Structure formats: C-alpha cells, structure tokens
Amino acid sequence: MPAFKPFLHASLFCLASAALHAQPGEFLQRLPADVLDVRPPSERVTGTPGNMRITDRSCRALPLEDVRRRIVNTAVQEWAWFGYGVDEQARAEPSSQPMPRGAFARLSASESARLASTIAGYWAATPDSDWILQRQNANWNSEGGGARWRDAWSAAFISWVMCESGISETAQFRRAIAHHTYIDQAIRAADGRDAKAVFTAHDPGAASIEPGDLLCRGSRPAYRSLSERRAQLGAGARTHCDIVVKVDPQAMKILVIGGNVRSSVRMKVMHAVQDEGESLRPLSDNGRALFAHLKLQAPAIALNALDTTPTMQARQCEAAQPLLASVTQPGPDLC
Hints:
By secondary structure, this protein is α+β, with helices and mostly antiparallel strands. The protein is 30% helix and 17% strand. It has one domain (10-44, 55-99, 166-326). The protein has helices at 13-21, 64-81, 109-124, 130-143, 154-164, 179-190, 226-230, 310-326, and strands at 45-46, 53-54, 86-88, 199-202, 214-220, 238-248, 253-261, 264-273, 281-282, 290-296. The strands form two sheets. Strands 3, 4, 5, 6, 7, 8, 9 and 10 form an eight-stranded mixed sheet that branches. Helix 1 (13-21) crosses helix 8 and helix 3 (109-124) packs across helix 5. The two termini are 31 Å apart.
C-alpha cells in the first residue's frame, strides 16, 4: 500500500500533517467532557488483563437528528486517541488478489497492554460478549498482559460508536460481534422488512455517501454486490465496515475510520469515481470490493464534517506546525 501523502486541498492540510507527525505508539488524551461528552470505553469494564470483566452495557438514547454528528465526533476522537494512523487505499478497481492478512506491522506488547481496557470497553457495547472477554482473560493469563486480542474487534468498535452516539435500541441498530448482523438488518430495512432500522443498505454509488454512513466489504465470501449478500442473508460471513467521516468530491476521496485496522483505530483514504447518473463511489478497500453502503436515515451534515469535529478543531493546527515549516508553499494560513 502506498505511503500516505498530504492532500493538495487546503481543507485537508492539517489532517495530513497530524497523521504524518503523530509518532508510532503515541496515544493522545481524549477531550474533556465539557468539550466532547463521550464516555471513555474503558469505563465500561473493571479489572486488569487476565481478570477483566464487563460492568456496564448501557447506551445513550438521543434524537436521531443528533446522531450523525455524534457518530463522526466519536469516531474521530478514538482515531486521534490511537495516534492519527492513516492508510491510503489503491487508486485502482478491486483486485482479485487483495493484500494478504498479516502484511502490516502489529502493535507492540506494551501498546496492546495499554489498549486492553479500551478494546474491552468496545466489546461491552455488544450483547452476549462475556465469553469473548473470558477467552481473552485466559489468553492474557497464558501469554501475558501484552497479548493481542484473539477475536477481531472491528464490529465491536462500530457497535460502541453507535451505542455512545445515541442509538440505544437493537431495533434501530443490531450491535453485534460480527458486522454481517447489522449489514443484514440494513438490507432488510432497504427491502421494507425492518421499519425501525436507522441504516438502509445500498450498492455503492446508488445513493449519496455522507459522513456518519458506513461502507462495508467482504473477505470470506468476497462479495462484489449487495445482491450477493442478499442471497446469503443470515449466513455467517467475514465482513468489515468503516465509518465515513469526510467526503471530498473535488479530490474524489472518501475518508473513513474503522477499528481493528492493523490492530488499531485507523483512517483509510479511499479513492473514488463517479459514474454517469450515479453518486460518488469508492474504488476498493485494501484491494477488496466495497459491496454495501449503509446509509443513516438522519438529517445530513456537511461533507467536511471531519474538519469541524471538536478533536480536529482542538488539535489539527498545533499538529500542523512542523509540516507548515517544512514546505515552501504551504497554502493559506489555516491556524
């Protein structure tokens, strides 16, 4: 995968510099509650690795008109807390040979230990996940507190974001340990069979993509269209979804944030195309086709929602200073 490069557009300049100058393993503090009222996931669990347990599974219940903005704000804060990791995706259409698993460096044992309660807190937002934490406790006891998570936690991250952002009822969003659970709910909603669901499924390009929406791919099976998953509704599948945080039609890029991406919460920069008569469509995710766009049924917010999140407003210009000083024509004074 190519190294991340700063965008030419001034609106993305601070984002690029924040990603470039965050040090590996650098974890940033979350904002105070009076700036961004998001409860840290670690507060949902107690104990230390090897003896950790879930103590709180409650979710906020907020009006739907507030949810889209909170989804973006919450996801961006977690991304910053994990160190501003950014990956730029391939510019080509999906390949038949996506990048193999394990191709990226993993977190160190000390980083994994520091993240233990945060990731356990993500699991706390998913129903019936006690067995996962019990299995992880056994893993920690046998391999040490820095052992990696045995179970992929990307769906747990999405579930926690939705829970913390005000979607409390499973009829609205089926929080789960696997993405296909809520993907299927969105497909049923699109088919008129799940009226209370707040996400409806579309083929990428069939509907406008907005911040707060989800983009999903499959790896086993490697779905290439929504109809392929619709034919297997309810069956187990290895899938992954990310949260859209910015759409830039001028640059033809869509920025998303997901969990358990290289064992972290990271941003992906997806290149996009726009076919005649269709909306902007992302090309691929790590060489795999994006088969589902889950559109949130909530009022729209600005396409550049990332830029105006409390996290970026508080930190982006401070982080940008080293890069601003290193280029000859940095563009307008953003700070």
